[in-house]
Every structure is written in structure tokens, then in C-alpha cells.
Amino acid sequence: MSKRKSPPLVSEPAELQRCVFPDSLVTVSEGGRDLGKFSVTVEFARRGQQPCVLLHAQSQGAIDDSPLFLCPFLDKRCHMVQRDGQMVIDRVTIESVSHPMSVLRGLVTEGSNLLLMRLIALKKEVPEHMTFISLDQGLNIIHTTFLGLKQLEIGAETVEVFGVERTVHSVEDSPTSWQCYFLADGHLATRMQVGSPVTMRLLHYVVFTKIPLVWEEDMQMRSQFLDRKEELKGDHASYLRQHPEIRALISDFLQFLLLRKPDDIFPFAREYFLPFASHRPPEPSLKAPSL
Questions:
Q1: CB of 245 closer than 8 Å to CB of 239
Q2: Is residue 209 part of a domain?
Q3: Domain assignment of residue 1, yes or no
Q4: Can you give the residue ranges of the Ciliogenesis-associated TTC17-interacting protein N-terminal domain (predicted)?
Q5: Which residue range forms the structural domain that includes residue 58?
Q6: Cα-Cα-Cα-Cα dihedral of 281, 286, 290, 291, to 10°?
Q7: Could you give the CA distance from residue 278 to residue 63 in angstroms, rounded to a whole number?
Q8: pLDDT per position as a tens digit, 224-252
Q9: Rounded distance, CA 151 to CA 166, Å?
Q10: pLDDT of 12-48, one tens digit each?
Q11: Does 48 lie in the same domain as 156?
Q12: pLDDT in tens, 82-111
């Protein structure tokens, strides 16, 4: 099966920083019954001297008092090493497989997949002909496809979200598709497996509206402002009366500045006020050369 090459998705550190935050959804049935919860945390860390991103996802709940695990309940660890033109992948289950490096171009690991989808949702665009591959539970190569924008109802609100559909093409089972919809800030709105009777979704969407502050029209705030203004003016005037040398110092500096008219005022001001510093840098000492 031929694959179209896609340009790499380059992200500045500031953009990646916007993708590092926790998410929490509730798991509900088709009838709206609360069955459990889904949570995921993402944080920056270091392994040795190398920076990395740690991702931990957990899903739990019950249907008719029977445990519900929408994701395998295990601590999955993989060790990936390039060796002789192959990518050797070892799991904690003592199972090892290898894939030629030539077919792993564009590989996105399980943890990186969430960051990638968050980044795409924040950008609200998918580069043309972009194809990413990943690995399923059996360490087989799978592909990720993307949906477009749509409206989604969250409680009494209807908001615009960005949908990403991920299809797992397993060699042992039929294809399985997962759909994730993200809000404008990158947080998960819903997550569901196509054909499953349960859905993970955000119950409430809170919109914070910035209200402009017109303090001049608020009598209490305007009174406080005027009182504080008069208080500062009196305090400053008192300080200047106690230190008349301030006016003389500033006047001398302005006269000297207007006489010299330097192109760069900051070095000029530094040289002018340096003798007034209480802690002057030590003068270089003159030593006789050693023979």
C-alpha cells in the first residue's frame, strides 16, 4: 500500500506549551446515564538529560455494576531503538517486533498522538496530503484520518469544535474508529468509539465574557481614584520638599544633555550618574609587570 509523503508539522515551543494541560470527561450511556469518567494529564519532564512529555490517561466506570474499561487497564511501556535499518520495539510483555525504518516515516507514538491532535485543533487546519502513522495494541502500523469543523451541543450551549477521527486498522480484528472533538482552546469536548453505546463528553461549557471596565462612570471607583491621586501628589510633594537636591540634580543633567545632544541617551545618562552611585565598580588597579 503506497503512502503519500507529507510535510512535517513544525511547532514552536510556545505552541507546544499551549497543548500541555489536563483534560477530564464523564462517560455516559446513550440514555444520558453517568457511567464513569475519563481523565488525561500531560506535563513536561526530563529523562536523564533529554526533555520529554509525560502523558497518563485513565478511564473507569461500570455498567450494571460490571466494570467498564474503554481502554486496556495496564501500564503500557515501549522501548524503541534503531538497529541495522530496523526500528526494534520492546514491550513490558516481553514481546518484541520490528519494522523497517522505511515504512515508519511520519511515526507518531500513542502519547504524541494526543499532542498532535491538540495542536491541529488549535491551528484549525490540516496541511494538505498530511499522513501520520502509529502503532496499535499489537504494535501493528495504523493510520490516522481527520474530520472537519462542526457544531456540537454541550448542555444548553452549541459550540464550534474541531473533529479528529482515528481509525485503527488491525491485522487481527476489523477496523476500529475513535472520534475526538476539541474546543477552540484545545480541550476535549467529546471522545467516543464509533459503534459503542457509551460516549465520553464534557458536561458543561463555561464561557467567560470580558466586561469592559469604565471606572469613570462608577462613582465609588472614581472617588477612590481621586482620593488616591491626591494622596500620591501630597506624598511626592512632601518628599521633594525634604530633598531639594533632586531638582538641582535633574536641572543640571538636562542642561548638560542639551549641550552635548548625544545620539544614544542611555549610555550618556549612565556615565553622568555613575559618580553618584553609592556602590561604584572598583577602579582597575595598575600593577607593575612581573619580570
A1: no
A2: no
A3: no
A4: 12-67, 74-197
A5: 15-76+107-201
A6: 160
A7: 75
A8: 889 999 999 999 999 999 998 899 889 99
A9: 19
A10: 467 788 888 888 888 888 777 778 888 888 888 877 7
A11: yes
A12: 888 888 877 655 566 788 888 887 787 777
Non-local (6+) Cβ contacts of 254 within 8 A are none
- In this structure, is residue 257 part of a structural domain? yes
pLDDT tens for 136-150 read 777 777 777 777 767
Q: Which residue has the cell 446515564?
A: 33
pLDDT surpassing 90 at residue 113: no
Does the pTM exceed 0.70?
Answer: no
* CB contact at 8 A, 159 and 151: yes
Q: Return all residues near 15 (Cβ < 8 A) that are at least 6 apart.
A: 119, 122
With 0-12 / 13-18 / 19 or more C-beta atoms within 10 angstroms meaning exposed / middle / buried, residue 38 is buried
Q: Count up the domains in the chain and report the number.
A: 2
Neighbours of 169 (CB within 10 A): 15
Task: Give the three cell numbers for residue 280.
Answer: 561604584
**Separation CA 245–CA 230 (nearest Å):** 24
Q: How far apart are CA 100 and CA 90, in angstroms?
A: 15
Cβ atoms of residues 131 and 6 within 8 Å: yes
**Among the listed residues 137, 133, 82, 80, the one whose alpha carbon sits nearest the alpha carbon of residue 105:** 133
